[in-house]
Amino acid sequence: MNEMIFIPHIGVDESGKGDFFGPLCIAGVLVDEKNAEFFTSLGIKDSKKITDKKILELESKIKTVAPHTVIAISNKRYNELYGNIKNLNKLLAWGHARAIENILEKNECTYALSDQFGDESLIKSALMKKGQSIELKQMVRAESDIAVAAASILARAAFVHKITDMENEFGIKFPKGCAAQVKDAAKIFIEKFGRERLSEVCKTHFKTYKEV
User: For 30, left (φ over 0), alpha (ψ -120 to 50), or beta?
Assistant: First the structure.
């Protein structure tokens, strides 16, 4: 029986998309057969199934061995981009395309994989010269792929770092997600810094923004 041949490829994933507070972080990782085996031995899988503590441990191991890129779109920049693009899938596609392009700047690769969102053509049309020739696939639950799983960990690690930086800067705990305590934190922020500065730390197109 023939063993399946591993095709080196770029995996792309994001973190922070569903979080009211904090940036949108998009990461790409180029994985070859050797790295795939190493990452599997480390227990790398979808970041949603790993604690933040473990994610920060795995982050440096991934970065040490594999070509990678991390794009953190601050809330200020995110809100500007969303204001112009007015479509989350198009914004995600733009970020995913940039991640692929960044890796292709210094590395040869013919195949990239990302999680399924919107139309596949969105990323393809956002790719520039270097990325136009790459074969691009989107897959439901793409985090089952080792390269996408590694990217999901780098994206989540970047998000955790940025949230920590924000908490240190403003002296407020910023809960993840969109639960009730998020509104409480937003009210505390407004009391301390004023309503007009809330957009510096959150995504303003979320329903939560209008509610607070």
Answer: beta
**Strand-pair category, 68-73 with 135-139:** unpaired
Q: How many angstroms separate the CA atoms of 48 and 112, rounded?
A: 21
Q: List the 111-115 sheet strands across, edge first.
A: 68-73, 24-31, 9-15, 111-115, 135-139
φ/ψ of 27, rounded to 5, equals -130, 150
E strands in the chain = 9-15, 24-31, 68-73, 111-115, 135-139
Q: Are strands 135-139 and 9-15 parallel, antiparallel or unpaired?
A: unpaired
No. of H helices and E strands in the chain? 8, 5
Find the helix or strand (DSSP H, E) in which 100 lies. Answer: helix 88-104
Note whether 79 and 204 are within 8 A (CB): yes
Structure tokens at 156: 């989540």
Q: For the segment 125-148, what is each residue's pLDDT rounded down to a tens digit?
A: 777 666 677 888 887 777 789 999
Return d(Cα 147, Cα 145) in angstroms, integer: 6
Span 2-51, pLDDT tens digits = 456 788 999 999 999 999 999 999 999 999 999 999 999 998 876 678 88
